[in-house]
Amino acid sequence: MTLDLSTFAWIHTLISLVPLVAGIVVVANLIKSEDNPAWTMLFFVTAIATNVTGFGFPFHQFLPSHGVAIISLVVLFAALAGRYLLRLQGHGRWIYVVGIVAGLYFDYFVLIAQAFNKVNVLRAMAPTQSEPPFRHRAGRTPPGLSHHRLCRREGLPARQFRARGCLRRQRWTMAATGPPPGGP
Hints:
Blueprint: H1 5-31, H2 37-53, H3 64-85, H4 91-118, H5 120-125, H6 132-138, H7 147-153, H8 163-168
């Protein structure tokens, strides 16, 4: 069974909206030091599917979207390793958190780029995607993704943010993993 390009584009678009919603829920749970494995798995599966299906469109040269997808896949697989292989122990915790936030940011960035490419009003504001309206929107993170918010929750000034320093202070662990190896 083969899909025509229009149907494939609609499926890809619908799949790509799911990790945006799931990722915001996962990041909100990170900020609250909560864990929801179902939302996390939904984010991973749909974010990876979005990146992989993006390569299914016909192309004749390497495009910026391919570069973003490759980087996003590397980041997502690192986050998967931090969560499921390293079980959020040691470096696994910050790798997971940074990977989730970066993976969601890449999806958000592609959403903005596609909106400026496909929506006529936005395309008129930034036809080459190098104009200030595009740079202003694409450079901003969606609500709740700011590393400042992760650190503010722990009472750290944003100027003192360092990924490992802030994320070590997060007090959440995976409920399913049980006690860390070598003790309760």
